[in-house]
Amino acid sequence: MGRGAHERGVGGDVMAATRRALAPGGSRPPAMLVLLAALLVAATIVAAVVGTLSLTGGAGPGGPPPARVAAPPELATPPAAPPAVPTEAAPTAAPTAEAPAPPADPRSVFRDPALRTLAEPFLTGPAASCDQRDPGADVTETVACDLGGGRSAVFSRMVSPEAMRDHRRGIVAGRDARAGTVRSVRWRYVAGRPETRAGVPPLEKDRGEGIRVRFVDRAGVPRLYFDQDSSGCTGDIALTRPTGNDRADLEALRTYWADPAE
């Protein structure tokens, strides 16, 4: 039902009631009843108008719009953190590599000048290194060396030339050698080439510097022993990686001993 029809219905009822209250004749009610009927009609009209307004949600013609109820404040949501930008790591400086210390001069290990002179020609290779060793009986100094190239050596200074000759006799006799492998000869420096050595042929009367003995020891290691009469010094050179061919290994030792620089 529309708003106008509803109001006409209410107004018609009120007018009918008013006419009945004011109708002439003997049946007219008392004045008090008339007043009560008028108040009842007015209250009914007001109630009808208020109800109509509440149903339509309006405030009536020209009325101010109803105040809006403020919406409850929303919970504040913290702003999303900006994506982390990877920090570019500072370039790591290249480590400052110190230059390796130069290898120690193997000749500096020797204390006895005569022993160092005998050993020096064999210490020129880049891989050569030496260490002091405890001297044995009748020995004043012993130095063990790695000569490089699969060769090692032990150099010793005896307490006297006589003690050295006693030691030599055991070597020449093959005390520590495999039977049949000992080869001995006297040796000398080559004229004009002080770093080069050679064997003295058996028929020559030159006594040379000392004795050179090549042999294969009881453990199968090819060795070359040599000594020097004037200083009482000895050298013992060994192959650390023998081929198994005794003759070839002993010849290789002789070639190396004659001139290590070649």
Can you describe what's shown?
The protein has 262 residues and is an alpha+beta fold. Helices cover 30% and strands 22% of the residues. The chain is built from 5 helices and 8 strands; from the N terminus they run αααβββαβββββα. The chain has helices spanning 3-22, 31-56, 113-119, 161-172, 246-258, and strands spanning 129-133, 139-146, 151-158, 183-190, 193-199, 210-216, 222-228, 233-239. An 8-stranded antiparallel beta sheet has the order 1-2-3-8-7-6-4-5, with helices on both faces. β6 and β7 (222-228) form a beta hairpin. α1 runs antiparallel to α2 (31-56). The longest helix is centred in the first third of the chain and has 26 residues, at 31-56. It is elongated and about 170 Å long. Mean pLDDT is 78; it is low at 1-11, 52-62 and 71-76.
Describe the secondary structure blueprint for this structure.
Layout: H1 3-22, H2 31-56, H3 113-119, E1 129-133, E2 139-146, E3 151-158, H4 161-172, E4 183-190, E5 193-199, E6 210-216, E7 222-228, E8 233-239, H5 246-258
Antiparallel strand pairs: 1-2, 2-3, 3-8, 4-5, 4-6, 6-7, 7-8
Helix pairs in contact: 1-2
How would a textbook summarize the main sheet? Answer: 8 strands, antiparallel
Number of helices: 5
The percent range for strand residues is 15-25%
Gyration radius from CA atoms, angstroms: 65 Å
Order of neighbouring strands in the sheet with most strands: 1-2-3-8-7-6-4-5
- Which range best describes the helical content: under 10%, 10-25%, 25-40%, 40-55%, 55-70% or over 70%? 25-40%
Net shape: elongated
Unreliable segments of 5+ consecutive residues: 1-11, 52-62, 71-76
Average pLDDT: 78
Number of strands: 8
Class of secondary structure makeup: alpha+beta
For the termini, the CA-CA separation is 132 Å
> Strand-and-helix sequence, N→C?
HHHEEEHEEEEEH
